[in-house]
Amino acid sequence: MKLKSIIKKIFKPSKAKIIVAVITVAIAASAAVNSVYASQEGVNCDGNAVVYCGAQTVSELQSKYNASQSVKNIYNWSGFAISASDVASMSTEAYPGYVTKSGDVYLNNNNLLVATNALTAGRENIAGSTQRSSGGTVFYTRPPEVSFIPNQLSAFVVMKDGVFQFAILKSCGNPVHATPKLPNYTITKQVSAANSTNYQGSVVVESNHTVQYKITVKSTGQVPANNILIHDVLPANLNYIDGTLAESGRHASVADVNKFFHGGLVVPTLAPGDTRVYTFSAIAGTNDTPQTCKRQILDNEGVISSSSVGVKTAHALVDKRCPVITPPAQSLVCSALTNTSGSVDNQGFATYTFTATATPNNVTITSYVFKFGDGTNKTVTTGSQNSSTSHTYKSGQYNAMVTVYGTGKDGKQYAVTSTICAQHVTISKNPVCTAPDNSTWPVGSPQCNVVSGCKTNCTTPPTKLVNTGPGDVIAVFTAAVVSGYTSFRWYLKKKILS
């Protein structure tokens, strides 16, 4: 009313009425323009709506989409790239959300920001818009701040594997493209020796020892990571210990263990900043034996994957080494050589009995070799720690000794002796022979008679001469003369008769 009063004061009444009418029409026209071109909450049944009067349900939107070629053309423009199959999948992939005038796209659930830098479209040209054409349909694209009257408008927000795809404004069916906030994640894998909390990228253990693994999965993206598949790849000669798999301290079921090591365990969703920690124990080198054991680098791989982020892996190494086997101590010692002697017989011989003692340690005794010091030896084959043998000496001095032979458990051959395994033997009486007249002579003397029982170097004694005194000589001479005379007479008689 103030405006009318001012006009009446300035202009004549007839003209004032005309001016007021014109201004009123202009204001109404301006309001009408804003009503036609601006996107508002509710139902927009105007020329700017891509889908006339919008759609309040997904099924309503799908029905109107299928009935309008121009809607299909606008949605299919390369900047939106919304296909018929995309619209059909909205039945399972569309979530309640909203688009702000500043160009952000949110899900109603926890007001989660899923996309930025939104671009929308309408059928009417508003200042700040860009004309487009798709399939013969002309339309206009612009940022929300150009056409939105309120600060935000409700929308169907389409998400796939946790990633924003596109949005449709409910009030007008206008499509929305935006830059999605992407999920992401990391995986780290560490290992420690048994009963240690010092997890690291690698560890050194001996064969058949226990190691503990820790796998940490963290969501590092701008939106939750969904349907993450987690599994572990055990290398050969590394065996999982039943009942040790746990997720953040909670022991896993047998079914989850099987999934974890074969195919993958699914984590439905992991919000930005959230983590999952998996631990389990295994034995390194379970297939090893002392004979087959060799050093190995056992590479254990952890794998996570999803359709929205892809595959990521992490590794932890176990440097499995074979224990140093110290062979048992081996030794063989000749610890004693004793002797007992018999008396020297009347020929000067003596028999000695020697007894050797050996001390083995992981060595098997095989024989004793006695060296008597007179050029003769004797080998006694036995595995006993004691061995005895006898030997007969003649008078003299001798250095007797024994050598013990054996085989160690590792195959090593032993031949040992020592100063305590040597004996000095002295026999002072010379060996003698007994003649037939019971006289004794040094061995080898011609007076010895073999029959007398001489033990060595005996010779046949010479014929013993008769007594050669003077009477004996005359008698022998007389006998010889008589014998010769008798023989001569017999010879002459034989000649005369012949």
Q: Radius of gyration over alpha carbons?
A: 62 Å
Number of DSSP E strands? 29
Uncertain stretches: 18-37, 451-468
* Overall average pLDDT: 85
What structural category do the secondary elements indicate?
alpha+beta
Number of helices: 8
Largest sheet: 6 strands, antiparallel, barrel
Give the domain tally: 4
Outline type: rod-shaped
The end-to-end span amounts to 223 Å
What is the topology, as strand order, of the major beta sheet? 1-2-3-8-7-6
**Strand portion:** 35-45%
The helix content is 10-25%
Task: Name the features.
single chain; 498 residues; alpha+beta; Immunoglobulin-like; 4 domains; six-stranded antiparallel barrel; 8 helices; 20% helix; rod-shaped
Could you write a compact summary of the structure shown?
The protein has 498 residues and is α+β, with helices and mostly antiparallel strands. Helix content is 20%, strand content 42%.
What does this structure look like?
The chain has about 500 residues and is of the alpha+beta class. The chain has four domains: about 40-180, no CATH class; about 185-320, Immunoglobulin-like (Sandwich), CATH 2.60.40.740; about 330-425, Immunoglobulins (Immunoglobulin-like), CATH 2.60.40; about 435-470, no CATH class. Helix content is about 20%, strand content about 40%. Strands 1-2-3-8-7-6 form a six-stranded antiparallel beta barrel. Strands 9, 11, 13, 14, 15 and 17 form a six-stranded antiparallel beta sheet that branches. It has a five-stranded mixed beta sheet with strand order 10-19-18-12-16. The radius of gyration is 62 Å and the shape is rod-shaped. The N and C termini lie far apart (about 225 Å). Residues about 20-35 and about 450-470 have low confidence and may be disordered.
